[in-house]
Amino acid sequence: MDFKTRTLQELRAHRAKLASRHSLVGFDGFVDTIVTPVALRAGQGENFTPIGTIAEFGQRILAAAGKSTNLEFYPRMDKLGGNGPIMANALLAQGSSLTYIGALGRPNLNPVFADMAARSEVFSLCDPAATTAVEFNDGKLMLGMMKSLDEVTPETIAAVLSADGYRAALARADLIALVNWTMIPNLTAVFTDLVERVLPQIPVKPGRVFFFDLADPEKRSPSDLVYALETIAKFEQFGSVTLGLNLKEAQQVFSVLGFGTETETENGLRNMAAKIRERLDLTTVVVHPKESAACANRDGTFWVPGPYVAKPLITTGAGDHFNAGFTAGQLMGLAPESCLGTGVCTSGHYVRTGLSPTIGDLETFLANWR
Description:
The protein is α/β, with parallel strands linked by helices. The protein is built from 13 helices and 14 strands.
């Protein structure tokens, strides 16, 4: 039996559990404008040839050194953005009830978050950040304005929710997903406040999962990153910790922990996940490049290929959808390999359709995956 069949069987057997699970996600929030860079314009509207690769875009920029240049971005859509809101929306689509704490607009919510707010409990700390997501055939550039995220602090959270409200929201949750460490300057302080002051005051809930996503830590110093990772490890005393990493993030963490470099092969991905997990003494570490995914826990390592598509409809948010699919699998109690399966299929459905899949959509995707 292949992993797709095993994942489908487990999903069908355990899908009902998700409706009784509650997720808490935080703490970012973005308004994303998805754009295509224009190489050669032949007329108005979409009558243009796009810049296809990041290398080609880079050459345009380098050629302007000492001169100037005009780069056009053709807008595709404005949408809810940020690692947290995208992951939260995907979890809602799959059936988890949800609380969101983050940068959604204050005093009024930004309209892009209205649908999510209608389907979940939300607490907004400050205004959202803004991102222009420039999409290419081989990746994307995220151009951000993030000053508002400076307001995400332990003090702001306590002021908006109250101490009792914050504890109550955490106590209810089966999944606590704390994401986008890189772009929230005070998030390590939020982590420290949680492990030293808040979590010791709430009951330990059996099966509770803490999920962390760093979000491309290249612009943070190695010492900041190591300190954040060591702080994340302290959450193990309150539940099981999962650290989710895309390929670039995994390579950065692998290097900063002193392991050097590793190849993007099945064995290389397994090795990165295993060594990072062992070094930090976490329950689970996940590594998910575009073409596959691997994870390591205390029992061993696991790997699955992904349903890669050469020309996706959208790529911004693909990793957040993987995270939602993987953690939904954990909430349902699926085996690690099947959690990887729900992760890659959630992402695979999203990049093809631009829509967050339901559990029924995942079953259909798995059944039709050839």
